[in-house]
Amino acid sequence: MDPGRPLAGKAVLVVEDSTVQRNHVVSVIWGLGADRVLEAKDGMDAMAQLTHAPGVDLVVTDLDMPRMDGVCFIGELAARGLRPEVVILSAQEPGVLNAVHLMAETWGLRVAVLAKPVSSPQLLRLLVRPRPAPAGRGELTEKASPADIADGLRAGEFLCHFQPQVTLHRALLKGVEALARWARPGRGLQGPGAFLPQIEGSPELMREFTFAILGDAAGSWHSWRRKGLNLELSVNLSARSISCQGFADQLMAEVERLEVPPRSLVFELTESASVSNLGNTLANLARLRMRGFKLSIDDFGTGWTKRCARRGILPNRSCWHSVSA
User: Fold this and answer.
1) Distance separating alpha carbons of residues 105 and 83, to the nearest angstrom
2) 3-state SS class at 236
3) Which one of 25, 30, 85, 302 has the fewest CB atoms closer than 10 angstroms to its CB?
4) Is 17 left (phi over 0), alpha (psi -120 to 50) or beta?
5) DSSP states along 288-324
6) In whole angstroms, what is the distance from residue 112 CA to residue 84 CA?
7) Contact in structure between 323 and 299 (CB atoms under 8 Å)
8) Which CATH number is 11-128 given?
């Protein structure tokens, strides 16, 4: 790589709603030797560009944009399996930037953050500086087989890391979200990219996986309770699982066995997998709500979650996409 032209031969997408800012960034990108530069005024425009012009190597994006902001746009990149390098340009406060940076890395994206306005030397130093791959990126090259995952579940190798959830008012710790990890012998700690796609293809495997994560999370919850911490525990549920007849009964029985009160559990439902039976899905959701469980939408798109929200089954709000990360 030519140190003075790190973008030689590469395609770059600049996502920025301000025309002045966008023109400035595009000029900087051209100056660093890019072969092709695409422009978008917000996340929706950017996704349309990527649909018609795939093969983008680098995305430079703002966060605060109309229609689809940068947070949702980065989530869409991850949801569609796109893995360009991402540079976030933003004037947001450090806490917001740190949260988005961690979010993107959790989803397997290589990401960096720069403050506005960016200069050519700043971007040049960033692009030529070696950056380690985010946790879980290497797992994209070697996915485990369903048999390997089943063996790992039987051996108790799947566990939880926890992401804190704080209130906007006074920044109080309100709860935690369980993030699934696989402590795979000989391969280290692996994120969801190494196992979740295979699990999604098997209802039986998904049920075992969900209960394994729920069990590990419940153990930590009880430990926190003994220390005086009363936290909400958020656990991801697959759309495929919730569409299976009788799944709510199995889930409620497992929660009762684990002795976690329903009011302390939040089930986050993703829309990343299509719902094969909407009737079963609505029945399961209704029964969980009747028992006092809280439900949250983890990927609020244009499909079944909006239909549920309009009927008051799920909260009518938009959240970041998650892959049970």
Assistant:
1) 11
2) strand
3) 302
4) alpha
5) HHHTT-EEEESS--SSHHHHHHHTTSS--------S-
6) 12
7) no
8) 3.40.50.2300
H helices of the chain, in order, are 19-31, 43-52, 70-79, 94-106, 120-128, 146-154, 196-200, 203-226, 239-242, 247-258, 278-290, 304-310
Work out whether the CA dihedral 90, 92, 98, 99 comes out positive or negative. Answer: negative
pLDDT level of residue 271 (50, 70, 90 thresholds)? low
pTM: 0.53
| CATH superfamily membership of 137-310 | EAL domain (3.20.20.450)
Joined tokens for residue 51: 């649909």
Is residue 324 very low, low, confident or very high in pLDDT (cuts 50, 70, 90)? very low
Tokens at 156, concatenated: 């108790």
Stretch 111-130: mean pLDDT, rounded? Answer: 72
* 156 touches 127 (CB < 8 A): no
Rg of the chain over CA atoms, in angstroms? 21
On the question of a common fold for 11-128 and 137-310, the answer reads no
Domain boundaries, the chain: 11-128, 137-310
Cβ-in-10-Å burial (0-12, 13-18, 19+) of 179 comes to buried
d(CA 42, CA 49): 11
Residue type, 53: A
Task: Say how far apart CA 284 and CA 249 lie, in whole Å.
Answer: 8
What are 146-155's contacts with CB under 8 Å, separation 24+?
146/198, 146/199, 146/201, 146/202, 146/205, 149/195, 149/198, 149/199, 149/205, 149/209, 150/205, 150/208, 152/182, 152/184, 152/195, 153/205, 153/208, 153/209, 153/212
